[in-house]
Amino acid sequence: MSTLTSTPETRSPGSPGSGPGRSGRATPARRAGILRRALRLRSTQIALGILGVIAILALFGGALAPDNPLAQNTGAVLQGPGGAHWLGTDYLGRDVLSRLMAGTGRSVVGALEAVAVGLVAGVAPGLASLWLGRTFEWIALRIVDAFMTLPYVVFAVAVTGIFGNSLNTAMLAVGALIAPRYFRIARAAALGLTRAQYVEAAELFGASRRRILRTHVWGKILPTIAVTTAQALATALLIVSSLAFLGLGVEPPLPTWGELLSSDLDYLAQQPWAPLVPGLLIMITAGALNALADAIRDSGAVLQFDDTALDTAPDAAPDDPEPLAADRSAYGVL
Amino acid sequence: MSGQAAETQAQRESAGTQGLERTLAYARAAVRIVSVPVTVFLIATFATYALGALGGANPAAEVLGQDATPAAIARLDHQFGLDRPFLVQYFTWLGHALTGNLGKSYFTSIPVSTSVGQALPVDASIAVLALCFAVLIGGGAGIAAALRQGSRLDRAVTLICSGVATVPPFIVGIALIVVFAVFLKVLPSGGYVGLTADPGQWLRFALLPGLALSAEGAAAIARQLRTSLVGALRENYVLGAAARGLPARRVLFRHVLRNAAGPALTVLGLEIPNLIGGAVVAEKIFALPGVAQLALQAGTEHDIPVIQGTLLVTIGVVLISNIAVNLALVAVNPQGRRGTRTVRPQAAARGAAAQPTAGAVA
């Protein structure tokens, strides 16, 4: 028996093989066509436009800001929107618009960092779990299950409490919890491919695992990973903001979106509309990322895999695919 | 054992043996439902304990301050049990934790179980309230959308659900405060009264946090329930039930919902960590004296036993809720129910055939 056809008991026995049928089509040229089709959608264009603006703000927000985001002005605290300060001032008289623009960088970098950690620490073991034998697979799945039970925010509170409060520590903690999601997605996406006839054929021809991974698996799961990444970024942005809201990963007086919201909270009676702008900014960014994820998914480049292979775990009885298999979107995992 | 062999065997066996086999199958299912969480619990608690050790904090030195002599530090290390091998420390800690002893705060010497015990009911009561809201609002919206598929209501539910997914949980909380506390002035913006102390006051304080926390879960349930209901409503047995003249309400609640509830329940299980994570933020918005405030406070002092204790309790709560969701899944699954009432050889054989593979995984 070949090492590539991995252990049968993880293939939920009752589930109809989703098979790699659809996946055989995504040649590079074809994929480029798919991307172009996704780009032609109005929603994709809008989402990319928003993300472009956010990226510019993240890179140059501090330089473009009309005011010094750190300059306090005790003579003009808690002012409403007006000519001098378009979005008003906060409780220390700092210009809110400038703080929003200057805070974009740290909010975005935080989310990117967490997702990068999750991507690296999740995808590689996820793929490896299909090839490295049962013991590794079993241990990896249990570790993944264990980390899936931890709520992001609680874990980040604990980790920053133990290792010290900084943006990097908080984001490493969040990344450690994003990794199991990537693990499951990568594993489920590649699972069907290991059963594909062309993979078996390649194996019979004596292709190395590395070659099979690189030429037959990686390119096919890439769109799936891209969808997950867009969604993970949206999730991470919300988590980063939640943490900043709690004062984690915040290094005062440097602003972030979440920190702006948390300082608004104390002055709701005077400025009930103040949370609106940072809140909307977070929502629009997360919404654009989700729209992008949908566009990539709908473009047809993404594998359709059955995630009963996601298996295991406190949330799904492993041998009982029938009630769970129905309608569980593989993308709902994040 | 192949399914066919088991089938013929089951047909030959007397009803009594079938009963025994069924009991065994249920016992195996119970072991499986429990064994995975136990493994997960061990790994997660090990990670929790290892985190504290990896932190490299020197609690004795921190407690004693800068003028501590090495001998005094060693004595305190011994008192905290920090001079023993790591694995011994872990299993001692876990053993104590399972008997309700989570150690003492390095700084205040208050037992961690006491402080967690005071804080946990705050979160638990609000989380349960939020769960009720999520099931009621999400369930209602999901059912309504599925019954009027393609209508304006259906589209509105879909739109709101995808909108809620992009809203950070604290935005909902802030919005609720602005509407109900700042403008309408009908509910307090924060604070807490114990449920046992004064249920009426408790509800006044818990209403807004409960609502804020329920938003995400409600959206997830509504979306999932709508999808699975739309599928289930097209099944032939629905047509059959209608043809037999059963009232629509009965068909919906007794037949369709039972079949469609599985995925929604699974989603609910997946939402529970989110719910707890959201509770952390809700505590801050609504000034609730909960577990997260305890953990945040402990974090500023590197009070490791308190941090470990709160994380351990969180893991425990998530796992117990997962087990509860799995049990509920078994309860609503018609396949399982059929097995308990009339023994059907096919069903028994299918159950038996599924066991060995599942056993290997679990």
**Average pLDDT, all residues of chain B:** 76
Q: Can you tell me the overall shape of chain A?
A: elongated
Count of helical stretches of chain B = 15
What's the shape of chain B? globular
**Most extensive chain interface and residues per partner:** A-B, 65 and 86 residues
Strand content of chain A: under 5%
Q: Helical residue percent of chain B?
A: over 70%
Could you name the ranges of chain B where pLDDT drops below 50 across 5 or more consecutive residues? 336-362
| Helix-and-strand structural type of chain B | mainly alpha
Termini separation of chain A = 35 Å
The value of Rg of chain B in angstroms is: 26 Å
Helix count of chain A equals 11
What is the CA-CA span between the terminal residues of chain B?
18 Å
Question: How do the helices and strands follow one another from N- to C-terminus of chain A?
Answer: HHHHHHHHHHH
How many E strands of chain A? 0
Q: What is the H/E order of chain B?
A: HHHHHHHHHHHHHHH
Arithmetic mean of pLDDT of chain A: 74
Give the strand content of chain B: under 5%
Count every beta strand of chain B, where a strand is a DSSP E run of 2 or more residues. 0
Question: Any chance you could write out the topology, listing elements then pairs?
Answer:
The complex is a heterodimer of chains A (334) and B (362).
Chain A: H1 28-40, H2 42-64, H3 96-128, H4 133-148, H5 152-163, H6 167-194, H7 197-204, H8 209-246, H9 257-265, H10 276-298, H11 321-325
Chain B: H1 3-12, H2 15-54, H3 59-64, H4 70-80, H5 86-98, H6 112-147, H7 152-164, H8 169-183, H9 199-233, H10 236-243, H11 248-285, H12 291-301, H13 304-332, H14 334-341, H15 345-361
